[in-house]
Specification:
single chain, about 90 residues, 3-stranded antiparallel β-sheet, about 50% helix
Length: about 90
Amino acid sequence: MTREEFIKKYKNDWLYYFDGYYSACIDDFLTNIYNDHEAQLKAKDEEIERLEEIINTSIEEIEYVIIKPHYVEVYLNNNNAIRFLKDNK
């Protein structure tokens, strides 16, 4: 899957969660996950799996999302939080 296909596959799901203020961050966020080739080569697909887990989570289960320059945290209403680290090489 190319970077463009990856972003296209997931972007609408993320736009559904984020308002327009954050939407510009989503391409960078998804690109950073896609570009994490080293982790993928080491079979550390945790970020991708966790991204899919969030996308497959119903909107009712998501309390709020915090986007920072180096990470994104998604807080669920079961008191769990999932953090995605961004690789800004």
